[in-house]
Amino acid sequence: MIAILGIKLGDPAAWVFLAFAAVTCASALVVAASRNIIYSAYALLLTFFGVAGLYAFLDADFIAAAQLLVYVGGILVLILFGVMLTHKIREIKLSNETTNPIVGAAIAGFVFLALAYVSLYTNWDVVDRPASPTTGEIGKAFVGKYLLPFEASSVLLLGALIGAAYLARRDKEKA
Amino acid sequence: MSHGHDDHGHPPAPHGGSGGHAAHGAGGHGASGHDDHGHGGGHGGATHFQPAGWSIGLVVFCAAIALGGFFFNLGRTGHFLIGSTAIDLNNLFDTPWPALTVLCLPLLAAFVQIFFGRKLPRRGDWVSTGAVAVGLAISLLMFGRMIGIYDWQFSRTFQIDWVMLFSRVNPGEADVPTFRIPMGILVDNVTVIMLVVVTLVSTLVHIFSMGYMADDPRYSRFFAYLSIFTFSMLGLILCNNIFALYMFWELVGLSSYLLIGFWFEKKSAGDAQKKAFLANRVGDIGMFLGILTFFFFTGEATYQGIFDSVAGGSFTGHIGLLTAAGCLLFCGAIGKSAQFPLHVWLPDAMEGPTPVSALIHAATMVAAGVYLVTRMFPVFTPDALIVIAWFGGFTAIFAATIALCANDIKKVLAYSTVSQLGYMIMGLGAAAYTNGFFHLWTHAFFKACLFLGSGSVIHAVHTQDMREMGGLRKKMPITFWAMFVSTWAIAGIPGTSGFTSKDGILGDLLFAAHHNAALWPVVIFGFLGAGLTAFYMFRLIFMTFFGKPAVQEKFDHAHESPWVMAAPLIVLGALALTSDKGGWFQDLVGPPPSAAKQALKLAGVKVHEPAAHGAHAGEEHGSHEAIAPAGKPDPAKAEAPAAGRRPYKDPLEHEKHSSHNWAMVLSILVATAGISLSYLTYQAHVISAPRIAARLPWAHRVLLNKYYIDEFIQDYLVVPCLSLAHSCARFDLKVVDFFVNAWGHVVVMWARVSNAFDQKVVDGAVNGTADVVQSAGASLSRFQTGRIKTYLAWSLAGALLLVGGFHLVSNWKHFRSRPTAAVEPGK
Amino acid sequence: MPVANLEWFLLIGAFLFATGVFTILTRKNAVSVLMGVELVLNSANINLVAFSRFVKAPPTLGPTSIEFPLQGEAAHHVYGAAWIGGNVFAAFVIILAAAEAAVALAIILGIYRNLGDVDVDEVTAMKG
């Protein structure tokens, strides 16, 4: 069986995985390269979906669900709102200009190369561990080992909410 | 009390020429009863006799006798009863507290006077007077106790370590004090006698000043100064070591300075105070050198320590220095006691208020020099004593001759003081320890009386010139009689205190001259001086109190002084007659064993002993005394006649007997001659003084100008000093400054070079660095575009570089061994 | 084991990261930049979860200042398995991303109100 980095080409699940990976990467490219910001946003939606699928392949059920709920349901909607609110709706072309694409591409390429190099040439201490549901463990970790960060993040969310509301509201004198 | 003294512009000096008699009744005792402004020219001299004067005088005298006698007897009997409580005074000398109380009360009073004096009732004079009066009471107690004990070697020391320097003698052991200067008080007969002198005269002067200074705007300050002086003088006589002595010595100098210049509005007073201060400094330098010499050789600061150390041979090998050190020490006495070369300040010091003259410049402070010689007597070698005797003798006659021609009543008394101090010094120098110090005791009273009397006279007639006085006898009976008996005393009329002491000095001097030919001129000085003293003192009395009034107007204004001024005169006049009586002084004051002779013997120097030439009895005694360790109670002396009473017996008494007889005859003769001449000249006018003056114009001129000493000092000391100073200044300006300036130019030039270097090179480097940094910053600041994306790009690039570089370095060998990156699948 | 090896996930994460960086660097629109940031966060999340799944977990809770009453397997049983840390971190990242997106959009709206545009290149108030 031909295996590329552990993917057995005869396994249908492998193909599904590859499909998710391809969708993720392709839509990410669209996000990066699209001239229309609306396209970018919808491509981002696809990316989030793809990433959620990858989480599923990683047996991270809770994170995959959270990815769908928070990113797709929350953040992406926020971003779309952002797009809508910052563009005059009458403008046909919601421009999404790019500057210095070559420099950006160069840096991004080098970053990718470096990361890929590290990924491939590091001797990871991989263990064979059977898949197990994560939600219960995460729940225990949230109220056990990670209780303090969990509480802190809740405070952070509250602060972010208040801060966002404060920042986004109109100034009184301008109103 | 003061009915508006401050607001009438009366000049501070009572003799300042103000027509008004504002200086009269001091506030509370206007009861003396006569109206200054009422009497004009119509008043005759005799009619102004105060009926109450004599009775008041009698009351004062009796009160003084009663009070003084009370305290004296308390001390003498040693115990008394208050109600049923017995107070035991036998241990009066077992603690330092009586003496310390006497010492500290005036200091306390001075502080009170300085800070609160003006606000106190009566401007605080009672504070100072009370303090010193309490001191007098305690002193009389001590005096009585001293008489009660009657031991000539009585001595108590209370001392603490004042300065202690520790050093490590043996390594590894604790530090031990190797350098000590003790501070303490020494109470012996001399101290007690001096205490009585100082507190008694001081008290009387305080009382006198209440009247004399009543109108002075700086009344309370005057009393503060008096208190400071009293404190300093008491400290001087109470302290037991030479360093404290020197401190208090300078303190009395300071008080003297302050009080001489008390009326500093007068230029003459300011000059006089400076003169006094400078003249004293000259002497004090010598004294300080002497102190240091003694301290250097003996390592001791206390008197007794010095005596013991000197007798123990600490000067052996440098025995000549012992004489020199003694002479240096005597320099202090020359300055303070106004001996010949440095006497010039004392007559000028009469610019101070008359009570000050009486207290400081007649009775007490000027006697400090005599006290110094007395106190340090054991360390003076025979040679040093001869020097001292010569200085004293010469001063005695020298000052007496000047007094012959002086017309200022206070100047006469001042030169008389100088002369009498010369007698004391001369006596001490001639080894007449007892009589020299005795003269200090008697002289303090009659001279204070004379000064206070002169103050009273000046107060009355507002002049100091005797030529403008005359006939005051009737107007000022108390003053007259007090001064008259004091004049008997100073002139040496038998029966008075001055006769006893002066005759004692002259007798001892005659005896000493028998054994040391170098003293014969001093003897002549002494007897001639005695005659001259009698002459000029009676001249003073005749010119002031007898004869006809020279200036009728002044005479008419004259009046007896208020009782605060008269009372001290009465007391002092009585003391002038009686202070020598009883013989206790000669019993209680004896010369301590001479440490210097012991040191000379140890050093192998033949000592010239009077007794060696003389007879039998004294030799045994004297040699024994010399061999005995100095200062230790001599067992030979312990065989006292009565239990507990140990009077001093002069071992040379028999040898001196004929000398004293001769001296008595001679001194009575010269005194009689002096008085007669004075009478013939100034009372009977048989001899005309102006004619004699015209006959001997040069002598008259020399005497009037006080031997041109001041001019001599001016021309040969001050002017050369000044010209030396000027030439030094010129040298400084021309030569020294030239070099200094030249060096300055060099430095400036060097500084210019340095400056250029600094500006060009150093600053160049600094500025260059700054420029580099600035341009680097400017170029770098372009990176700070404010665009987040740029930052991100750069930080990513940096991160990549770091990761790449780090990886490259850490895996260098792997790169070389694996040139091609084989894609190996993970597990 | 999953169908793919760890390196697959890491490579996909690296690709997403590079894409996100490119987006951030090249886009002028602030909202697009925000999208890039989300891509970067997702790539990090993929890595975290992948490590959590594949890489051997530390045997204990690790050094900490908190005194846990239980240690070892019992602790894992009560406080959560050791390997779950990566997933928990990913959850925290998602939380942070939500907060960040909210605040970032608020800021973007503020910029838009003040400048009339959302071009991040024009926002140079912090230029030195």
Span of the ends, CA to CA of chain B: 122 Å
What is the strand content of chain A? under 5%
Total beta strands of chain B? 4
Largest sheet of chain B: 2 strands, antiparallel
- Tally the helices of chain A: 6
Strand order of the largest sheet of chain B: 1-2
Mean pLDDT over all positions of chain A: 84
* E-strand count of chain A: 2
Q: Roughly what is the average pLDDT of chain B, rounded to an integer?
A: 81
| Poorly predicted parts of chain A | none
Uncertain spans of chain B = 1-51, 612-642
Structural class of chain A: mainly alpha
Multimeric organization: heterotrimer
Distance between the termini of chain A: 69 Å
SS-derived structural category of chain B: mainly alpha
Q: Helicity level of chain A, as a percent range?
A: 55-70%
* Overall spatial form of chain A: globular
Order of helices and strands of chain A: EEHHHHHH
Q: Total helix count of chain B? A: 32
What structural keywords apply?
heterotrimer; B: 827 residues; mainly alpha; two-stranded antiparallel ribbon; disordered N terminus; C: 128 residues; 0% strand; elongated
Architecture overview:
The complex is a heterotrimer of chains A (175), B (827) and C (128). Chain A has helices spanning 12-33, 37-57, 61-85, 101-121, 135-143, 147-168, and strands spanning 3-4, 7-8. Chain A has 175 residues and is mainly alpha-helical. In chain A, strand 1 (3-4) and strand 2 (7-8) form a beta hairpin. In chain A, helix 1 packs antiparallel against helix 2 (37-57) and helix 2 runs antiparallel to helix 3 (61-85). Chain A is globular and about 65 Å long. Chain A starts with a strand and ends in a 7-residue tail after the last helix. The model of chain A has no long low-confidence stretch (mean pLDDT 84). Chain B is built from 32 helices and four strands. Mean pLDDT of chain B is 81; it is low at 1-51 and 612-642. In chain B, a hairpin with a 2-residue loop joins strand 1 and strand 2. By secondary structure, chain B is mainly alpha-helical. The relative contact order of chain B is 0.08. Chain B has a two-stranded antiparallel sheet with strand order 1-2. Chain B has a two-stranded antiparallel sheet with strand order 3-4. In chain B, helix 2 runs antiparallel to helix 5 (219-238), helix 13 packs antiparallel against helix 14 (409-429) and helix 14 (409-429) crosses helix 18. The mean pLDDT of chain C is 82. By secondary structure, chain C is mainly α. The relative contact order of chain C is 0.14. The radius of gyration of chain C is 20 Å and the shape is elongated.
